[in-house]
Amino acid sequence: MILVINCGSSSIRFGVYNMDADRLLKGKIDHIGSEESSMRVEGAYAFEGRVRLGNAGEAAGYIVLYLEQAGLLSAIRAVGHRIVHGRNRKQAVLIYDAVRAELEGNRLLAPVHMLAALTIIDSMRRLLPGKLHVACFDTAFHTDLPEVARMMPLPRHLIQKGIVRYGFHGLSCTYLLRAFEERAGEKAASGRLIIAHLGSGASMTAVKGMKSVDTTMGFTPEGGLMMGTRPGDMDPGILTYLTRAEGLGLAELEQLIQAECGLLGVSATTADMGRLLKAGRQDTRAKQAVDLFCYRAQKALCGLCGALGGLDAVIFSGGIGENFPQIRAQICKGLGFLGISLDETGNMENAFRISRPSASTQVYVIPTDEERIIAEQTLNVIANAN
Fold first, then answer.
1. Was 319 annotated as part of a binding site?
2. Are 234 and 241 in contact (CB under 8 A)?
3. Torsion angle of C-alpha atoms 122, 126, 130, 133, degrees rounded to 10
4. CB 216 within 8 A of CB 224
5. pTM attached to this predicted model
6. Could you give all domains of the chain from N- to C-terminal order, each with its CATH number?
7. 350 belongs to an annotated ligand binding site
8. Is 321 annotated as belonging to a binding site?
């Protein structure tokens, strides 16, 4: 069996898969580090309840304890870890000490995500020393970006130091492309697509011939679209202004960019899209946050069409993209010039195809499954290792 770990800054999704990459159970730990931390497991070994977990390391220990009590731990052969930033790594890799040191060097590129992932890796390697551990990279899908999309308008010596566009949500893109091909066919999947992974972290990726040709996130996961607590693209002069006018230091700027902007910052209440949509009927700031999120997503979608030379299909996914018809409708509103025309009933029902059959650009909703891709990549790595 394979244990899959997909960690965020304060949550962990995990799953157990057999050697054919079929999922046996899935679980999630939320609100790590708070008094409201809880775990929910679906499947044959269902569990739901509050668990006091102060950090990602404690959460890793609790997952191992749960698997032991469920009688599954001894059957686990390997652990697959989602790693947000892999720089130029094209494939998943076994985590030996040298790879662990390499990952430490990537920590500055995504401090919040990498800290949680590295804490989990260290805990799991200590708790499960006899198991193989595999790093699966969110950036790998974008490693063949065209040079013009990869470069940033910086001094050459900084570009040569690796300050370029890496892109993220690659594991999600990998799954969504395959799922789309299975349902819509190879011809459709080989066309000009935009994958809109919209969640607490959000990005759009332009795909042509089943390869990434551009993406909204760049050097770090903070850029691109407006997100739950991250601003996305903004005038870089704002940061220098804040250091001079407001006296903000590096730590304060990091806290601002990673945890205080986006939907939360504009609404001044929450980063939860569902709550904002409900509050927006009376709360002007909540409505402004939603409107800005959709406006910036719409602009990004239109911009990526230039990289593609047109548009054949849009795929919505992620927690927001999969579950909120109002957001999809607002993003697509006014995009008739791109051939987009939504079917209102299909959209409200979160159907697979939510555009009118006659529309020249088709729009789809596909739930993503990053954990499945991590399981498959982990199985491939350990098979080659043997």
1. yes
2. no
3. -10
4. yes
5. 0.94
6. 2-137 (3.30.420.40), 186-365 (3.30.420.40)
7. no
8. yes
